[in-house]
TrEMBL record:
Gene3D superfamilies: 3.40.190.290, Winged helix-like DNA-binding domain superfamily/Winged helix DNA-binding domain. InterPro entries: LysR-type_TF_proteobact-type, LysR_HTH_N, LysR_subst-bd, WH-like_DNA-bd_sf, WH_DNA-bd_sf. It comes from Stenotrophomonas chelatiphaga. This is LysR family transcriptional regulator. It comes from the Bacteria. One of its GO terms (molecular function) is sequence-specific DNA binding. One of its GO terms (biological process) is DNA-templated transcription. Belongs to the LysR transcriptional regulatory family.
Amino acid sequence: MDLNAVRMLVQVAEARSFTTAAGQLGISQSGLSRAIGRLESALGVRLLHRNTRNVSLTPDGRQFVEHCTPLLCGLEDAERKLGDRPCMPSGVLKLTAPSMFGRKVLVPMAGKLMAEHPQLQFELVLNDRLVDLVEEGFDAALRTGPISDVRMVARPLRPLRWVTVASPGYIARHGAPATVDALQDHTCLAVRNLRSGRLVDWQFRLHDGQLREFTAAAPMVFDSGDPLVDAALAGIGIVQVMDFAVADALADGRLQRVLQPFEGRERALSLVYPPSRQASPKMKVLADALLAGDW
């Protein structure tokens, strides 16, 4: 079996395009197509569905790629060791992440990793746009919620948890709410979901385990969570945000948690990357740092 052709197939499967894969591999599209055609002939099965817009794996092709990808990663690792090449993280790691998570967690983490591994570099795209990792040349992404792209490796990280916070100054002036209903008498600040146009509901877990939603009659509304934290620090009102966004402010006392017995809202977070990045030393150090969960 032609291992180069197998590598080419994996690249096409990730890119969903002969044109894109050929550009990434530095070969002609016709040469790529012929190599995969020979692989299909050798195996006696059709591996790809081809049409004018894109390509996709057949059931046989999906099974073949799922079994071959770990083997290819193992071969690459063996090649590095036999060649006595250092497996130190090096080169550019291009990542995308939601804006606030990127600023609060990923930027400090990247700085620490670069100090530990001087040959490692980062290119960070911090926004909430859902990028195509292969098409746009990303190594990995931090994504929240369920991961539906079966082509990608998705490693679950510590879930994101919501906390409700206010500044000591606000609490000194207005007191701290003792119940969810008491929020009606407080200044609650909110974020508007730009897709639905609705304010994002707050959620609390009651003593019986049921989730309780609360829609703030907010006198101040933002389009993202970043200025929401700034407003809370300024003492304007109470906010509900993800814990990582205010970890430093809670630690040094600039913000305080309220309604702590009713916390419980969570959202899944995953590190997502193409299978071809599985054996990459730079991906390993990033995954290890994120999986440590001390953020």
